[in-house]
Design goal:
The structure holds two protein chains of two kinds. Chain A is of the alpha/beta class. Chain A has a domain at 255-358. Chain A is 35% helix and 18% strand. In chain A, the strands form two sheets. A seven-stranded mixed β-sheet of chain A has the order 6-7-8-3-9-10-11, with helices on both faces. A four-stranded antiparallel β-sheet of chain A has the order 2-1-4-5, with helices on one face. Chain B has a domain at 104-337: MetI-like (MetI-like fold). Chain B has 13 helices and no strands. In chain B, helix 5 packs parallel to helix 12, helix 6 (141-155) packs across helix 8 and helix 10 (247-284) packs antiparallel against helix 12 (303-331). Classes of the chains: A alpha/beta, B mainly alpha.
């Protein structure tokens, strides 16, 4: 599924996205082929423009981390493509190596992300050595540390992770990424293991990197408040699919998908939505429901709102088309999104809908 | 690990740690020294009677023998004598061999060092290799077979394994002749300092060494496998892989060195215990080392010899512990400053 419509009102779009995910599926088979398949990522389109911060939000288990890992080539997709600057990713460590210099990973827990037996210097220099970066290693490491806010950098060279605070450790992880002068960061819950007081500092650091170095960042988070603070664009994921995406302000001010609304209604700072606690079974990627994958828990369907609009049959039985990775506001919902309504009328059965309908 | 010393002696954290460990080790050794004396005197049996058994020796003569061992004196006096002698480096005269204990031990230590040294090297190398391979290719055929075999070997008492191997390969089963000698260090009338002599010792060494190696391979393989499996879930491996490091290097540079930490401790702790563990194997194979010597000494009971041998065994355990501690601090920066 290619984005056929040009993305309007995005000045960078002229150069094309730096990262593009097309119809990505990542399924995990049960051991030795027995048992059900878990569809962790089940058809995702996503674009990240140069210099843009995109937040990928969703509950735990929605597939957001798997998506991030397959974007980094750590998990091989079952089908679909990840494109970096328009070129599909290679397979295998050797083919991925140039890409892995350009796109760097920042993990949730900096304590685990650093080898406890390596000094700060060793950790930061590792990437430089893997990629055989030319130049004075000490200077490069010092620069990366300083840019990550560890100053004076040389004082940290011989420190070990256990001697640093959580925030400092995360800065070391970020320095390890920056040392390679990447064009993009994929940050998986970059602040959720940190103290509230340190969170702001790390977020400010990330924002500064976008401003000063023109980095693009894909932030994976379960925290809509965090997305609100830093992201230009927001994609909400539910059970392996992106159910709503668009500019952060628009999505949060006017959420269309009932799932986004429910998530947003429990954010403490949000007062304009009535609090909705989702009921029903938690999503299970081995048993994706037919029709709209959110319908068993959907408050709009339960309250009869969907029935009044005459879409309840479609919610239960018709597969919702995959949202395109374009910039404008979209939601994968028959009830609230005009374009989805229209598109599915034009093409009542999209790819994958037969299989899903049979489940 | 110790920091550079300054001119006015102010011990660094590392030096203080080293000092504390050394004092601890010395205290343990002192405790063993005291304990050994009383432990063996509780054993049943009278050395003078046992040594003269089946011989026509008048009772007065036995009494003279007992006096010559110093056993006629009251216990506190014996104890004071023992502590004084041991601290001055005199382990006493063996009742059974009528020679200084230190001489007897010096003669019998080399077969044990040879047997234990070789089996420790082999079991460590093979066990770690199996553990690493099993964890890396988890659930592969190799992993499943080696895990099953390791668990079976781990559950077997080593002396029983020794007897089984002795029956199968020493004595021979059915039409199968005994391939290896059933005991001893060498065949009679072999010149040890010749090529044939070395080959002969190697043939004698094979079965006891195989037994001990098998017994310890299993343990090392299991521990290495589980600690590497733990390590493989760590995020820093993902970081390294995401930076473009090849899987083989992720394993070699990051996962294995860190997973080796618990295994190193285990190997050194075992090194101490394996010395005493050799008692049963040396007895099964009549291997003339310290293990067999202590078995012989126990039957008398030859107090000075037992005290000497057990002091050596305990020292081995304590020193191995000390090395494990210090090595761990060297290998793991978290211990150093923690």
């Amino acid at each position: 599924m290619t984005a056929t419509q040009p993305a309007p009102a995005a000045p960078e779009a002229a150069q094309g996205p730096i990262l593009e995910v097309r119809d990505l599926h990542v399924h995990f088979g049960a051991r030795r082929g027995k048992g059900p398949t878990a569809k962790a990522v089940d058809g995702v389109d996503l674009q990240v423009q140069p210099g843009e911060i995109v937040a990928l939000a969703g509950e735990s288990g929605c597939g957001k981390t798997t998506l991030a890992r397959s974007i980094l080539g750590l998990v091989e997709p079952t089908s679909g493509q990840v494109l970096y600057r328009g070129k599909p990713l290679g397979r295998g460590t050797a083919a991925l190596k140039p890409y892995r210099r350009e796109v760097q990973l920042v993990l949730q827990d900096p304590t685990g992300a650093l080898n406890p037996r390596q000094s700060v210097y060793e950790s930061v220099a590792e990437g430089l050595r893997i990629h055989g970066v030319k130049g004075d290693e000490e200077t490069l490491v010092a620069d990366a540390l300083a840019r990550s806010g560890l100053r004076p950098p040389r004082r940290f060279f011989l420190a070990y992770p256990h001697e640093l605070s959580g925030g400092q450790r995360q800065r070391v992880v970020i320095a390890g990424a920056l040392a390679l002068e990447p064009s993009m960061l994929v940050a998986d819950e970059p602040v959720s293991s940190l103290d509230a007081s340190v969170r702001g500092e790390i977020l400010a650091l990330l924002l500064g990197l976008v401003r000063d170095l023109g980095l693009s960042i894909l932030v994976v988070t379960h925290d809509l408040g965090l997305a609100w603070n830093i992201a230009d664009r927001l994609a909400v994921m539910y059970l392996g699919r992106i159910v709503e995406q668009g500019p952060t302000e628009t999505v949060l001010a006017n959420p269309r998908h009932p799932y986004t609304r429910a998530l947003l209604s429990v954010v403490p700072e949000v007062h304009h939505l009535e609090t909705q606690i989702l009921s029903g079974e938690p999503p299970d990627p081995t048993r994706v429901p037919p029709g709209c994958r959110f319908h068993p828990r959907c408050p709009a369907l339960a309250s009869g709102e969907a029935a009044r609009a005459g879409v309840d049959d479609r919610c239960r039985n018709e597969a919702v088309p995959i949202l395109r990775g374009v910039a404008e506001h979209h939601a994968a919902c028959f009830l609230t999104d005009e374009s989805v309504k229209k598109e599915s009328e034009r093409r009542p059965r999209t790819r994958g809908s037969h299989a899903e309908g049979l489940q | 690990m110790a920091a550079t010393s300054t001119r006015t002696f102010r011990p660094s954290a590392g030096q203080r740690r080293l000092g504390a460990k050394l004092i601890g080790a010395a205290l343990s050794l002192a405790f063993v020294l005291v304990f050994n004396f009383f432990l063996f005197r509780v054993l049943p049996g009278d050395p003078a009677k046992n040594l003269t058994r089946n011989r026509l020796v008048p009772a007065e003569q036995v009494e003279v023998l007992r006096e010559s061992f110093g056993l006629g004196k009251p216990l506190p006096q014996q104890f004071a004598q023992y502590v004084r002698d041991t601290l001055s480096g005199d382990l006493g005269i063996s009742y059974k061999f009528r020679r200084p204990v230190s001489e007897v031990i010096a003669e019998r230590i080399w077969p044990t060092v040879l047997l234990l040294g070789l089996s420790t090297l082999l079991s460590t190398a093979i066990g770690l290799w199996i553990g690493i391979r099993g964890a890396w290719r988890r659930n592969s055929v190799f992993d499943r077979v080696s895990l099953g075999a390791s668990l079976a070997l781990y559950a077997m008492p080593e002396f029983w394994l020794g007897i089984m191997l002795l029956i199968a390969f020493g004595v021979g089963v059915g039409p199968l002749p005994g391939l290896f000698p059933t005991g001893g260090l060498s065949s009679p009338d072999t010149e040890l300092a010749s090529l044939a002599g070395v080959a002969d010792v190697a043939r004698h060494l094979f079965l006891p060494c195989l037994t001990l190696t098998l017994a310890y391979i299993a343990e090392y393989a299991l521990v290495m496998r589980s600690s590497l499996l733990d390590e493989l879930t760590e995020d820093y491996l993902t970081t390294a892989r995401a930076k473009g490091l090849r899987d083989a290097l992720v394993l070699r540079r990051h996962a294995v060195p860190n997973a080796l930490l618990p295994t190193t401790t285990l190997i050194f702790l075992n090194l101490g215990f394996i010395v005493s563990g050799a008692i049963t194997i040396e007895t099964v194979y009549s291997w003339p080392g310290l293990g067999l010597l202590s078995y012989e000494a126990l039957r008398t009971p030859d107090y000075p010899l037992l005290q000497g041998v057990f002091l050596l065994f305990s020292a081995a355990v304590i020193i191995a512990n000390l090395i494990a501690d210090l090595l761990y601090a060297y290998l793991d920066p978290r211990v150093r400053t923690g």
